[in-house]
Design brief:
The protein is α/β, with parallel strands linked by helices and about 290 residues long. The protein has a single domain, classed as Protocatechuate 4,5-dioxygenase, Chain B. Helix 1 runs parallel beside helix 5 and helix 3 packs across helix 5. The longest helix has 30 residues.
Length: about 290
């Protein structure tokens, strides 16, 4: 896999999908997302997790989180984002840490972000791309002052999120902010390495499998079993391993509720055969 080319392809695809959806389509997504009222989750110091897969598939879920942020009355939103391994160096580091290696010896370790002087890998990531696009449209659509959004990008939690460089600063920010995160918690199919015999189409058992796997991982995270969750994310091909651990450590005791799971096709992106897809999942993490 040419990881840098994949990054370029993903960002290009998202830009095309944003243009195709347009302002009218984005406003329709914000309106449709009123099906879910999740502001109380944030007001009660819980968290919301939204996907970042295909735009048309996931825009409604992302819109639901944007609506909740606005309706919560918060002045600040702390967005704990995925940071993808878009270089061989990052991928090998991730594998070493997943195998029990010490993240402190890696070239990149800790929490990055626009206001944090600790690497700029975050600037090339696509995880918050659609959130930002819809956020700007929401500001105009609702005609209200939107909260400030602070993006942070953890890298290599390794089962010990509290010792990551930058964790204490992010935890301090969270005291006066509502917390959201983004994740695609289940990648499946031929393009992700499953055999033809193992690969399931979404409507033929795939989404049921995704729900079961995501639920198992969510229970590990709810219990604060960070090392187990780290390994779960490897097995499930979930990109929430670092962001999820930091989110749970900051929020404290929380319980998950899966609001919706949809399939987002990724076969064309990976130039792979069907089925190759991602489970776009909206999860409410409620304070216990």
């Amino acid at each position: 896999m040419d990881r840098n080319q994949l990054r370029i392809d993903i960002n290009h695809q998202y830009a095309q999908e944003h243009a195709s959806m347009g302002i009218r389509g984005a406003r329709a997504m914000l309106a449709a997302a009123r099906e879910w009222d999740l502001a109380s989750v944030l007001r009660d110091r819980g968290g919301l997790v939204f996907p970042h897969a295909g735009v048309q598939d996931c825009a409604k879920q992302i819109s639901a989180v944007i609506n909740a942020c606005m309706d919560s009355g918060a002045d600040t939103v702390l967005a704990i984002s995925v940071l993808h391994a878009f270089s061989d160096d990052m991928e090998q580091a991730r594998r070493r840490v997943a195998a029990g290696g010490n993240p402190a010896v890696e070239r990149i370790w800790g929490i990055q972000g626009p206001d944090i002087a600790r690497g700029d890998e975050w600037a090339f990531d696509h995880a918050m791309y659609t959130f930002r696009y819809l956020w700007e449209i929401a500001a105009d659509y609702y005609g209200k002052k939107m909260p400030r959004v602070i993006e942070v990008y953890p890298w290599l939690a390794g089962g010990f999120p509290q010792i990551m460089p930058g964790y204490d600063d992010v935890a301090a920010l969270a005291r006066n902010a509502v917390v959201v995160s983004t994740a695609d918690m289940f990648h499946h199919g031929i393009g992700y390495g499953d055999s033809v015999e193992q690969a399931l189409y979404p409507a033929q058992g795939g989404l049921e499998r995704a729900r079961a796997v995501i639920s198992d991982g969510a229970q590990m995270l709810a219990a604060g079993k960070y090392a187990a969750y780290n390994q779960h994310c490897v097995d499930a091909r979930s990109d929430h391993r670092d962001a999820g651990q930091v989110m749970r450590a900051i929020l404290g005791p929380i319980e998950p509720e899966i609001i919706e799971i949809v399939a987002s096709d990724a076969a064309a992106l990976y130039k792979a055969a069907d089925p190759t897809w991602v489970a776009g999942t909206l999860v409410a993490w409620r304070r216990v």
